[in-house]
Amino acid sequence: MHLGLIAAIVLPRRGRRRTPSEDADGELVARLRAGEEQAFLALVERHNASMLRIAGSLVSSSAIAEEVVQDTWLAVLRGIDGFAGRSAFRTWLLRILVNRATSTGMRERRSVAVGDAGPVVDRARFDASGAWMSPPQHWVEEAEERMLAQGLAQQIHAALGELPALQREVVLLRDVDGLSGAEVCEVLEISEANQRVLLHRGRSRLRQALEDELGGS
Question: Looking at domain 20-103, does it have CATH number 3.20.20.70?
Answer without folding.
Answer: no
